[in-house]
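Pasting two entries for a bug report.
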Amino acid sequence: MLSSCGDEEAKQGTETAESPQCPCTDATSADIITVTIGATVPTGFEPTAAEEVKEKIGVDARISKDRGRIYFPISTDKLFQVHHLKSVDNLFVVVEEYDHYQFKESKEEALSEFQQLASKLPWTNALEVWKLNGALKKKKGHRKGGSGAKVKSNRETSDAATASTEQQELPEAVSLAEGQITSDGSPDVESGTQEEATPEATPKAKLIKFRVTCNRAGDKHSFSSNEAARDFGGAVQDFFQWKADMTKFDIEVLLNIHNEEVVIGIALTEESLHRRNISHFGPTTLRSTLCYGMLRLCNPQPADVIVDPMCGTGAIPLEGAIEFNSAFYIAGDNNDMAVKRTVNNVCHIQKRRAEKGSVSALPIDTVQWDLCSLPIRTSSVDIIITDMPFGKRIGSRKKNWDLYPSCLREMARVCRPGSGKAVLLTQDKKCFAKAVSRMGGLWRKLFTVWVNVGGLHAGVYLLQRTGAVFGQTPEDVYESRGTVNTQVDEKQEKERS
């Protein structure tokens, strides 16, 4: 399927092939064009991201067959709005889309087609959007962190492809620049990268540097991602006469391949937007974009009291305090290091807001507590939202069998009967399902969103507090098979962090 402006772009593509457009050419501000924007989102929260696009931009978003991506049309006069979306990780403008790309069977023929494709694509509008996007953002110079930082971004972008091809192939991440291939052994998706460039159309034009990044998923391709990036990138370089640079590039061309779906785009974000709020990270810090999706599930209302009893670095309540600031948030944890990180992250955001001249105070408080004995009055909390220990980096699977029922019981005590809700994330699905069944008189499961968290298949569970009065159901007298140890080994956590 072509983008919404495919016909117009197709006409321009012929002209582009004869005379490549320089991205540095001055744009005519009066020219408003419509393009398709692609966005990577947390896998499983594609419908939530589409809802946000409809709510904030007023257009319908299309969910890609390649999980973790959505597409939507936008006119260039509203381009700034895409950077205000909170559920997207990375943004790119679509050059061209192919729903059913027929790859040649032999590697040589398939790669030869990629080489020929570069000169046939309608680059004009996408490059125009890239220029406008650069003017919108307050750039702080070239991206920092070199190839290491960029590889992390590629790994994050590839989460979606990994989730939909979990048992199809073992992907790899490869970066290609100026003929050199480097592999970082990423567990998520194959990535190949190459080059950027500078047009020679104008004598005093800035030297434009570029690279091509290929994200591939599927087991029926005769080529690897680095081979596709190498050959397609070389053709792009020849077409535009750009210069390859792996780390300090101006333009990143994206070649996304998912089975028969091929999307060519130009990146609009330098680093993933999910890191926007956190300055002090812990061993299991959630993405801000995933936190936003979880918060939208529970639909916070004005004056709601929202509690995260296992806050870690405070990512969830901090996102809520910023985006849904009519509610009040309590962030708590049993580990003092986690509480300190949360306090530091809150202070960081408040300082940043004060520097911009906006109201710095946030409706959030932080406390250290025992999550199985919360210092909160019965039936006083509207929403509980938290990332529960998976039993991998934090805690253990064995302890979860006692911890989960005790947590759910205490959450039921403090939650308002009938109206209270809980949004809980965990990868320990078997243990959680058993704990919820034991608490059947207190909690009712509404639905589950299956997500990819760092390569792990996890569930976000939305629970509704039943109308049962706490203290009058069989679940209230649940007793652990042993002593519940809710304390995390601080020495162990220090080593991991």
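Entry 2 (this is the one that rendered wrong in the viewer):
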Amino acid sequence: MRRTARVALLCLGCGLCSLLYGCSQLALSPEPGRGGRERQARHPAAPGARRQAAAGRYNYMKTRSSEKMHLAVVACGERLEETVTMMRSAIIFSIKPLQFHIFAEDQLHERFKDILDDFPYEGKVNYTLYPITFPTESAAEWKKLFKPCASQRLFLPLILKNVDSLLYVDTDILFLRPVDDIWSFLGKFNSTQIAAMAPEHEEPRIGWYNRFARHPYYGVTGINSGVMLMNMTRIRRKYFKNDMTSVRLQWGEILMPLLKKYKLNITWGDQDLLNIMFFHNPESLYVFPCQWNYRPDHCIYGSNCKEAEEEGIFILHGNRGVYHDDKQPTFRAVYEAIKNYSFGDELVHSLLQPLELELRKTMHTYCGKVYEVFIKQLTKSIRDLHARRSRGR
């Protein structure tokens, strides 16, 4: 009798537990007509959901940032045509979408809009126009430093706060291969590197910094800032060593003290300030070869960029106004060819062949003697573009 009572009591307890469990599951079940996945999404605090949501955001941002390349340029005075020609060269060959950040004087904005709004490739190319902006308390001093508005580039990490990485170029830059290729250097940065530039000279005997500079400069011959690839997130976070204080300073804190200390000793303005900064922080700079920033100095005294001799010029930099005078007709020929090219025309017949004919006319100059380096990479870029289009059909 006692044994029967114990069994009955045990069964009653089990039944009561089952009933309570069923009620609890009913209370936690999703509302009618809604799936459990949506319910879980509405309650990210559930175990594992927070990690999943965070991973989703990370992957989304990672995908989004890799879809678009950000390119910045500063245009003042008579630089509108150069800027537009630079943009044309970037658009012709690049693969991923381009986001241009154009800093220009107010009177140039409408002219930029009129030209750029007629550009093809909608969806692949976007642009944003910005006014020239310097810190209020020292705007006049920054604007007159070197060329008008040139020092604007120093403030890009502080202005474009939501841009992670950026390629800054001068207006007199021409891309002879996809922007994607120089953009890929970002993936080659080590943990300390925040920016990439090319040397100012390959040959110390004709170098400017090592012969004339009255301030510190990077490496043997200094660096040229006409093509500057930046991980701006790292730039904004970094504390820089300097020769003004034992305390390391962030980007926004170091610019004005540097200008005050060296303004009587600098010739090339903002480029000199960058040289000083990377002299004290050499571990922060990635140096890319001269064919990524090929200038007249690489050929006017004889060819001294071996990488360009082997592979061709990747980015042409027509500094000192050589696109607009007769001093370096080789550089001018490339500029005119890209400026006059119409989007959609066949590249070999409309760009490459006419350019080669013009380059052959410049063989009386030192740069013209090596005119092949000006079209070697361009030829390859056109061939690669045709191959991509063929695969896409």
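Dev reply: Rendering is fixed now. As a check, the viewer should reflect this: The radius of gyration is 29 Å.
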